[in-house]
Amino acid sequence: MTDHFDLCVIGGGPAGEKGAAQAAYFGKKVCLVEVAPRLGGAAVNTGTIPSKTLRETALYFSGLRQHGLYGVEYKVKRTITLSDFMHRERSVVEAAWDRIEDNLDHHQVTRFRGHARFVSADTIEVERAREEVRRISAGVFLVATGSRPVRPDSIPFDGRVVVDSDDVLSLAAIPKRLVVVGGGVIGCEYASIFAALGVRVTLVNERARLISHLDADLSDALRQEMTRRLGIEVIMDSVVRAVEVRDDVAAVRLSSDRELTADCLLCCVGREGRSADLGLAEAGIRANARGYIAVDEHYRTANAKVYAAGDVIGFPSLASTSMEQARVAMCHAFDLKYKTAVSSVLPYSVWTVPEIATVGLGEDEARRLGISVEIGKASFRDNARGQIIGDTEGYVKLVFRTDNEQLVGASVMGEGACELIHIPAAVIRFGGSLDYFIQSVFNYPTLSDAFKYAAYDGMQRMHRRVSKAMEARSRASHTTGSITPIEPDTA
Question: Does residue 382 sit in the same domain as residue 436?
Answer without folding.
Answer: yes
